Automatic annotation (TrEMBL), chain A:
Compartments in which it is found: Membrane
Annotated family: Belongs to the sodium:neurotransmitter symporter (SNF) (TC 2.A.22) family.
GO MF terms, alphabetically ordered: L-proline transmembrane transporter activity; metal ion binding; proline:sodium symporter activity
Protein keywords: Glycoprotein, Membrane, Metal-binding, Sodium, Symport, Transmembrane, Transmembrane helix, Transport
PANTHER family xref list: SODIUM- AND CHLORIDE-DEPENDENT TRANSPORTER XTRP3 (PTHR11616:SF44), SODIUM/CHLORIDE DEPENDENT TRANSPORTER (PTHR11616)
GO terms under cellular component: apical plasma membrane
Transmembrane domains' residue ranges: 99-118, 130-148, 169-191, 252-272, 284-307, 327-352, 364-385, 480-502, 523-544, 550-573, 594-618, 638-666
Residues the entry annotates as binding Na(+): V110, N114, S338, N370, L489, S493
Name of the protein: Transporter
Bias (Basic and acidic residues) ranges: 34-49
Native organism: Heterocephalus glaber
From TrEMBL, chain B:
Keywords carried by this UniProt record: Cell membrane, Glycoprotein, Membrane, Phosphoprotein, Signal, Transmembrane, Transmembrane helix
Pfam families listed in its UniProt record: Collectrin
Principal localisation: membrane
Domain (Collectrin-like): residue spans on this chain: 21-222
Membrane topology annotation: Single-pass type I membrane protein
Record's subcellular location: Cell membrane
PANTHER family documented for this protein: COLLECTRIN
GO cellular component, one term: plasma membrane
Positions of transmembrane segments: 140-163
UniProt xrefs under PROSITE patterns: COLLECTRIN_LIKE (PS52010)
Protein's recorded name: Collectrin
Protein source organism: Heterocephalus glaber (Naked mole rat)
One biological process term in Gene Ontology: positive regulation of amino acid transport
Length: 679, 222
């Protein structure tokens, strides 16, 4: 699964968890200092302008609606600070322009999954007909859940921990789980950017290093591994990853990849250094550049020889696939993960926007853009597929022609693709013995089988695409463009990921009191980089696949489920709707309420149960290892310690939710006991 | 008598040059593949040129400087175009060893290819492997150079941003510490003067008239 790009899920770690009922003691008003107004202040100014809007969190007195002023600062925009007398509440950072928020969300959601996962799904589930479950799931699941997260973030104006704690103290664990998942994601996601950098730097050579096989030790032929596989596979598995034959053989850190990883983290640090100030400028670039490159590639792709084969193959709908439940499940999963729900990044992004921001409009725009990009990217991918398949098919035919010409000493140029079958028949009848000798060597060339090789993930990006690129004219240019696009997509996602971790940390008074924002960001990047070096080892790509498949999948489903249930049933759907109306000026309609309350949670429960049963039923977990002697992937079982690690990964995030809830419950019990004792 | 001698010579020639004969090599040309429309026809003259090139190559071998064109025999020319050839000694009773012929051809492969406008793939000497071109390894891999450039740029940009942030914060701290003092004095006076808990008020730096309380504050909070 491709977890969507990192979202800025910053959880604001508030002060000590405030029990629900103790909010709004008469004293706790933050003082603002004039000197602290260097950033645009939001709620503070509004609070001052509208003296009546110093209301507390509406939960206290029951659902009372806000007093008359329609532009009153919404209750949910009050910042809570520990009410110490000189507590200085710094105004929250803001997006410089509402477009920055939109671009940040787009840049986060539109990630590598749109480019390398969706085309694969389209191909496996019957081309054009996959769009039907995809669009249905978008309407039923994607748009409502995205609106929910954005609304929560905008309303609470804190990162995910603080936001969920505000909704209900027992739900603080949801925020924590989001941070843990974001942390795992950012550890392993940046290695993709490192790979992208490596390929980008290697694209400035003529010929491209993955277009030829290197010579072997005594210069009599090519490297054996390269002969058995292909030059692009050899470059990926040997020159880039230097992959070991199994996950147990960890091997050494590859210094080239380590350097690229350090560079990738430095770049992320540069972009998040100043918070929304710097991120806001960067997202203009990371959101728009991929589209430029995709358009260029679309034009190039459609003019390639054989592109129409691929496009026809993809878009011919196979309607019988609609009956396959797997298609619907994959559609739901893709929508879910593609949007980046549950990481807390969307909450963090939204917490930096104006309270009156119309996030409903933004939700729809982001969802539609995300899906449109997926479809657009798969058109490009399939024209490239078609080109590559046609090229390989014609190569195969030429090899057969050459073999026949040489064996039977036919005139050079006599055999062509059109008369091949005829001549084969003639030869079979005229020279039966010789023909039967040659027959086993003749490969059966088929365009269908070439097109059928559906690939996803890193295989698609780094093997299939590079193979297609090396056969184009001026391959260096196309290669540079392509990897540049991959890098911007990946960077956009990383910005969101790290924001998801940083916003809670910077919101927490404990941490941000002692360290400046730059230092916190630097520490987070440093820690992530150090742990990420694990993925630059020889077995690194196997660990990458573990993280990719297991770190975020189940946990996210659980997190979003608890989020939806928490908002609808614990907090109250009606209350939430009233808050939204107070904040943005428009109440959510019946569609939103119906989706939030029933349809989306049911869908998530269904997905969750499906994946759980899938994991349990499949028995041993297996993985694909690269066998250098055969030049292809083989399936192996995970060793026990790896399975334990997988279990820990999943548990680390999911256990936060019940543990924090339990902890809050116990603490409140103790406090009540104390009070009763004292009284 | 003369006819018999001639017949004998031809017979011996025929024996010397045969497919799979000792010291014989098969040659395969793909002229149409290499040249397309500009392909030339393979005729006797081209064969003569080929024999001349082989003789020329053999003359480079030590002790074989006396090789003549007539010592090179061609046979079994097919439509492909492919044929076999051998190189005989001046007395024409045995063929020269395969090693010498192989060495000679490998040394002059490039010139033979160029004469016929072909390359190693389109003019094939079966059983004579071509020497593969050594890879061109630059002293510094290109990717390191580009990596260095981008790394340098990012380090510079990061340092600039961090330093400017530190400078900004230092300036802000200086300013706010001045404002802080004045506000402190003012608020303390106000507190003493009115005996009101300042914490309960949302202060902008001035006094708030308590008469105008909000609805919320009238009610006792939970």
């Amino acid at each position: 699964m491709e977890p969507p790009s990192a979202q800025l899920a910053s959880l604001a770690k508030d002060e000590e968890p405030q029990p629900w009922g103790s909010l709004g003691g008469p004293g706790q008003r933050p003082k603002t200092r004039r000197g602290a107004e260097d950033m645009e202040s939001g709620a503070k100014e509004e609070a001052r302008r509208t003296p009546r809007a110093r209301g507390r969190w509406p939960g206290l007195g029951g659902s009372r609606s806000d007093p008359a002023h329609p532009r009153a600062a919404p209750r949910c925009s009050q910042e809570r600070s520990a009410g110490r007398s000189r507590a200085m509440a710094k105004a929250r950072a803001r997006w410089g322009h509402p477009l920055q928020f939109l671009f940040a969300c787009i840049s986060y959601s539109v990630g590598l999954g749109n480019v390398w996962r969706f085309p694969y799904l389209c191909q496996t589930h019957g081309g054009g007909s996959f769009l039907v479950p995809y669009l249905i799931m978008l309407i039923v699941e994607g748009i409502p859940l995205l609106y929910l997260e954005l609304a929560v973030g905008q309303c609470m104006r804190q990162g995910s921990i603080g936001a969920w704690r505000t909704i209900s103290p027992y739900l603080g664990g949801v925020g924590m789980a989001s941070v843990v998942v974001s942390f795992f994601l950012s550890i392993y996601y940046n290695i993709i950017n490192a790979w992208g950098f490596w390929y980008l730097f290697n694209s400035f050579q003529d010929p491209l290093p993955w277009s030829f096989c290197p010579l072997n030790a005594n210069r009599t032929g090519y490297e054996e591994e390269c002969e058995k596989a292909s030059s692009t596979q050899y470059f990926w598995y040997r020159k880039t990853l230097n992959v070991s034959p199994s996950i147990q053989e960890t091997g050494a850190v590859q210094w080239e990849l380590a350097l690229c990883l350090v560079l990738a983290w430095l770049m992320v640090y540069l972009c998040i250094l100043r918070g929304t100030e710097s991120t806001g400028k960067v997202v203009y670039f990371t959101a728009l550049l991929p589209y430029c490159v995709l358009i260029i590639y679309l034009v190039r792709g459609l003019t390639l020889h054989g592109a129409t084969n691929g496009l026809l193959y993809m878009f011919t709908p196979k309607v019988e696939q609609l009956a396959n439940p797997r298609a619907w499940i994959d559609a739901a999963t893709q929508i879910f993960f593609s949007l980046g729900l549950g990481f807390g990044s969307l909450i963090a992004f939204a917490s930096y926007s104006e309270p009156s921001n119309n996030c409903q409009k933004h939700t729809i725009v982001v969802c539609l853009v995300n899906s449109a990009t997926s479809i657009f990217a798969s058109v490009v991918t399939f024209s490239i597929y078609g080109f590559k398949a046609t090229f390989n098919y014609e190569n195969c035919l030429n090899k057969v022609i050459l073999l026949l010409t040489n064996s039977f000493d036919l005139e050079d140029g006599f055999l062509t693709a059109s008369n091949l079958e005829q001549v084969k028949g003639y030869l079979a009848s005229t020279y039966p013995s010789k023909y039967s000798e040659v027959l086993p060597l003749l490969k059966n060339c088929s365009l269908e089988s070439e097109l059928d090789t559906a690939v996803q993930g890193t295989g698609l990006a780094f093997i299939v695409y590079t193979e297609a690129i090396k056969n184009m004219e001026v391959p260096q240019l196309w290669s540079v463009l392509y990897f540049f696009m991959l890098l911007t997509l990946g960077m956009g996602s990383m910005l969101g990921n790290t924001a998801g971790i940083l916003t809670p940390l910077t919101d927490s008074k404990v941490i941000s009191g002692h360290l400046p924002k730059e230092a916190i960001s630097g520490l987070v990047c440093l820690v992530n980089c150090a742990i990420g070096l694990l993925f630059t080892m020889e077995a690194g790509s196997y660990w990458f696949n573990i993280f990719n498949d297991y770190a975020a999948t189940l946990s996210l489903l659980l997190i979003v489920l608890v989020e939806t249930v928490g908002v609808c049933y614990v907090y109250g759907l009606r209350r939430f709707g009233a808050d939204l109306e107070a904040m943005t000026g428009r109440a959510p309609g019946w569609y939103w309420k119906a989706m939030w309350a029933c349809v989306s949670p049911l869908l998530i429960v269904g997905l969750f149960l499906f994946y759980l049963s899938d994991y349990i039923l499949s028995g041993t977990l297996q993985y694909q290892a690269w066998d250098a002697t055969q030049g292809q992937l083989v399936t192996k079982d995970y060793p026990v310690y790896t399975v334990t690690a997988i279990g820990l990964l999943v548990a680390a995030s999911t256990m936060c939710i019940p543990l924090v809830a339990l902890g809050t419950f116990v603490m409140r019990r103790l406090k009540k006991g104390d009070r009763a004792f004292k009284a | 008598m003369l006819w018999l001698f001639f017949f004998l010579v031809t017979a011996i020639h025929a024996e010397l040059c045969q497919p799979d004969a000792e010291n014989a090599f098969k040659v395969r040309l793909s002229i149409r593949t290499a040249l397309g429309d500009k392909a030339y026809i393979w005729d006797k003259n081209e064969e003569y040129l080929f024999r001349a090139m082989v003789a020329f190559s053999m003359r480079k071998v030590p002790n074989r400087e006396a090789t003549e064109i007539s010592h090179v025999l061609l046979c079994n020319v097919t439509q492909r175009v492919s044929f076999w050839f051998v190189v005989t000694d001046p007395l024409k009773n045995h063929t020269l060893p395969a090693d010498e012929v192989q060495w000679a051809i490998r040394m002059n492969r490039n010139r033979i290819n160029n004469v016929f406008f072909l390359n190693d793939q389109t003019l094939e000497f079966l059983k004579i492997p071509s020497t593969l071109a050594p890879p061109t390894d630059p002293s510094v891999p290109i990717w390191i150079i580009i990596f260095g450039v981008i790394f340098g740029i990012i380090i510079v940009a990061t340092t600039l941003l961090v330093l400017s942030g530190i400078r900004q914060r230092r300036r802000k701290n200086k300013e706010s510490s001045e404002v802080d003092d004045t506000e402190d004095k003012f608020e303390n006076m106000a507190t003493i003067a009115n005996s009101i808990l300042c914490d309960s008020l949302d202060m902008k730096g001035g006094l708030v008239n308590d008469v105008f309380m909000t609805e919320d504050e009238r009610l006792t909070p939970l």
